[in-house]
Amino acid sequence: MSQFPDEAHLSSWAGICPGNNESAGVKKNSKIRKGDKFLKATLTEVAWAASRSKDSAYSAMYNNIAKRRGRKRALVALGHRILIDVYRTMKFQVPYKDVGAEVVYQRKTKNREQAMIRSLERSGYVVTKVATA
């Protein structure tokens, strides 16, 4: 894995890196780059299989993205995530550990909650978080 300094270089070479076509905070339509077509096809097939697995982090990620952006974009995003995980597993020689779908959903809920609190504070409200049972 010494050929690529980091996972961003690998995903760029593979042509499965996310686009960056944004103007005034609006993400515009963009296509993935040209890259290794065989690797892209393989990653898409792997992503499709991973999205169908039960209670995995990959399936939760796929479902979250597919709701907002569509199935095919979610497959490309999931293929990108898988490529990054493979790179890190091979480079650092550590086994891959799936955190599970529940962790992904909890992280999403926590991020949404923090965004709402920030929005209220920007509007001038004082927010105190109360722990529930």
Explain the layout of strands and helices.
Blueprint: H1 7-14, E1 22-23, E2 26-27, H2 37-51, H3 57-69, H4 71-92, H5 101-122
Antiparallel strand pairs: 1-2
**How far apart, in Å, are the first and last alpha carbons?**
47 Å
Order of helices and strands: HEEHHHH
Strand order of the largest sheet: 1-2
- Alpha-beta content class: mainly alpha
Question: In what range is the share of β-strand residues?
Answer: under 5%
Largest sheet: 2 strands, antiparallel
According to DSSP, the number of beta strands is 2
What is the overall silhouette? globular
Helix content: 55-70%
Uncertain ranges:
none
Count the DSSP helices: 5
The Cα radius of gyration reads 18 Å
Mean pLDDT metric: 89
Task: Give a verbal description of the structure.
This is Transposase. It comes from Candidatus Methanocrinis alkalitolerans. Residues 1-61 form the Transposase IS116/IS110/IS902 C-terminal domain. This protein is mainly α. It has a domain at 7-99. Helices cover 60% and strands 3% of the residues. It contains five helices and two strands. The chain has a two-stranded antiparallel sheet with strand order 1-2. The chain is globular, with a radius of gyration of 18 Å.
The gist of it:
This protein is mostly helical and 133 residues long. It has a domain at 7-99. It has helices at 7-14, 37-51, 57-69, 71-92, 101-122, and strands at residues 22-23, 26-27.
